[in-house]
């Protein structure tokens, strides 16, 4: 953990770092009226460049479950325990106004070996550079270290977690001048280069909880509050199998029948209502009823059909593919029951798909991306 010098600890940075569970109404809307450009002319920079508040900042961003069944590309949530970490430092050896990815480590060596250290092709680097442009940082250079806690192509928002952690770190390093909507837009700069322009991972990773994307042009986000007095757990079972987002999106139909659209719309509406009511049983049931995306993707993930059956038979309220997969997500309201169901799902992946898998029972992350330490020296 870093140290915080009293003479550099401004009221803005204090509010940023002391990030408690947000006090939202049942829904709160964030409107993002513009998109950050890939390049920004000097005259477009803010008139006053912010000064660094710290020498280095360490941030964490949680994993996410996107789509949640029928909420394809417009609904997602953050889950605790899993995520990526970024350490960002001022580095005099780096050209002013630029950023370098100095090193990458991780819990999954195969993932680390595939990641580029070129900031123009690294999720964290792209989002960090976008945040720097939005702040107008041009007189100091930054060095970024990324620790991947998430595997690639897992369906848990790996790219979004890296982008969210990086954007938050840049913002905190310079005093927290960017709004939450600005940070989402910075993260989307990364997402659109990696997996397409969709916010159902980056928004909940940054904001925490459940987030509904009401509109993309302009981007308009709605934070949905799940009641704090209700228990909600996600059984996340990840097989040793990579499902690239671009490949899984290519499997989707170009046209959807009217009756399928109506059926999915009603289930998505029920899902949103269940979130606001804290009705875990209905939430799980609606999550299980995607009739458009899941039927096309499930056959591409060995054993997924069997895994869903095992989860529901074991007592889960519902089960579907997390994001584009291959992780399967089941919904329960009891941790011990979740562990039992996770074991059944792991077994189903092995028997039905001949894939080794691991299970984690996670809660809803209500905070989102946050600073976890800082250093003023």
TL;DR of this structure?
The chain has 377 residues and is of the alpha+beta class. Helices cover 34% and strands 24% of the residues. Helix 3 (123-135) packs antiparallel against helix 5 (180-194) and helix 8 (258-277) packs antiparallel against helix 9.
Describe this structure in words.
InterPro entries: GHMP_kinase_C_dom, GHMP_kinase_C_sf, GHMP_kinase_N_dom, GHMP_knse_ATP-bd_CS, Homoserine_kinase, Ribosomal_Su5_D2-typ_SF, Ribsml_uS5_D2-typ_fold_subgr. This is Homoserine kinase. It catalyses: L-homoserine + ATP = O-phospho-L-homoserine + ADP + H(+). One of its GO terms (biological process) is threonine biosynthetic process. Residues 128-209 form the GHMP kinase N-terminal domain. This protein has 377 residues and is an alpha+beta fold. Helices cover 34% and strands 24% of the residues. It contains twelve helices and twelve strands. It has helices spanning 11-17, 109-114, 123-135, 158-173, 180-194, 202-207, 245-250, 258-277, 280-287, 294-297, 304-313, 335-353; strands spanning 27-32, 56-66, 75-90, 99-106, 142-148, 210-216, 219-224, 233-239, 318-321, 328-332, 357-363, 370-375. The strands form two sheets. Strands 1, 2, 3, 4, 5, 6, 7 and 12 form an eight-stranded mixed β-sheet that branches. The protein has a four-stranded antiparallel β-sheet with strand order 9-10-8-11, with helices on both faces. Strand 2 (56-66) and strand 3 form a beta hairpin. Helix 3 packs parallel to helix 4, helix 3 runs antiparallel to helix 5 and helix 11 packs antiparallel against helix 12. The longest helix is centred in the C-terminal third of the chain and has 20 residues, at 258-277. The protein is globular, with a radius of gyration of 20 Å. The protein starts with 10 loop residues before the first helix and ends with a strand. Mean pLDDT is 87; it is low at 1-27 and 31-45.
